[in-house]
Design a protein that fits this description.
Length: about 190
């Protein structure tokens, strides 16, 4: 029963981290700007709270899926810079059927989740910055929020790049340790 609950928790946690949070992050500043500029829209939300909440949840999930795709494109851009050997290692890694599973697989799984979050939040940062720019708030507060959102977006951009590098390295190392050595003494993943 404990394993079922742990798997269920993981299945809930992944979409929340990779879809909902980036979706909320990208949509919320723009929605606040709309509500501050258009009191009728805010009154509509207040009069229809449940429906508005469901619409926001669906919109955030949809935005999160789009952002996850954009983050995946960013991941692919960085991944492709590691050359054809990284791609070959990726396909060899996908072909591995391991029992018992090495600890590295759970490390890779958690790293992929983190990278997906970073990519989605980075892509969502652009939308959040645009939304903040349209907020009707004090100029100093707006500049502060813009600097914070921009800084976080740039930071996440470089984190995605770093995460891709780490995943390429860990997969190569895992393949070298789990696949037979060639007569040269080099692992399959070391071949250029």
């Amino acid at each position: 029963m404990k394993e079922i609950l742990a798997a269920f928790a993981a299945e809930i946690f992944r979409p929340v981290i990779t879809l909902l949070i980036p979706g909320f992050w990208s949509l919320t500043p723009g929605l606040i700007a709309i509500f501050l500029r258009c009191p009728v829209a805010w009154q509509f939300v207040l009069n229809h709270r449940v429906a508005s909440s469901l619409v926001f949840l669906v919109a955030s999930t949809t935005a999160g899926m789009i952002l996850e795709n954009l983050g995946g494109e960013l991941e692919n851009k960085f991944f492709r810079k590691h050359g054809d050997n990284a791609l070959e290692n990726w396909y060899a890694y996908l072909a591995l059927a391991l029992e018992p599973k090495p600890i590295a697989l759970s490390y890779i799984r958690s790293y992929v989740l983190r990278m997906k979050f970073e990519g989605g939040m980075c892509a969502g940062g652009v939308s959040a910055i645009i939304g903040i720019a349209f907020l009707s708030i004090d100029c100093c507060l707006k500049i502060t929020l813009l600097v914070m959102a921009f800084s976080m977006t740039v930071y996440l951009f470089f984190q995605v790049k770093s995460s891709v590098r780490e995943l390429v390295d860990v997969r190569r190392e895992l393949l070298n340790r789990l696949t037979p050595k060639l007569p040269t003494g080099r692992g399959v993943a070391d071949i250029e």
